[in-house]
Design brief:
By secondary structure, the chain is an alpha+beta fold. The chain has one domain: GMP Synthetase, Chain A, domain 3. The chain is about 45% helix and about 15% strand. The chain contains five helices and three strands, in the order H-H-H-H-E-E-H-E. A three-stranded mixed β-sheet has the order 1-2-3. Strand 1 and strand 2 form a beta hairpin. The longest helix is centred in the C-terminal third of the chain and has 19 residues. About 10% of the residues are buried.
Length: about 110
């Protein structure tokens, strides 16, 4: 075998944050909206506030935009059901893709 030297082309571009690269990539795929939907789960406390977050736990979100949330008591579940339109507005604020269409409340068990 001949001794080969491989030259690496160096890009003149500056390094980019991995989160920016992934966000750019995901925006071009059909699953980009799905990833945006899934962000609701870890962002739940910031989206709904401390009081609601203390008595709820987001479980999952389906492709059709249904967010499943466990609630500690039936009283809270009734209250949150009445608040659902306002919560959806807060959750979807600033989102262009991956919006939550509805919330399905269920008792923690």
């Amino acid at each position: 075998m001949a001794n080969e030297t491989t030259q690496v082309k160096r890009s003149s571009r500056k390094p980019e944050k991995m989160s920016d690269v992934l966000a750019s990539f995901m925006s071009t795929t059909k699953d980009g909206g799905r990833v945006e939907q899934a962000r609701v789960v870890p962002e739940w406390p910031a989206l709904v506030g401390e009081q609601i977050s203390a008595v709820t736990e987001p479980i999952m979100i389906t492709r059709d935009g249904t967010l499943f949330v466990a609630v500690k008591t039936s009283s809270w579940m009734s209250e949150l059901s009445l608040m659902e339109p306002q919560l959806l507005i807060a959750i979807n604020e600033g989102r262009t893709a991956g919006k939550v269409a509805r919330i399905h409340w269920r008792l923690m068990g």
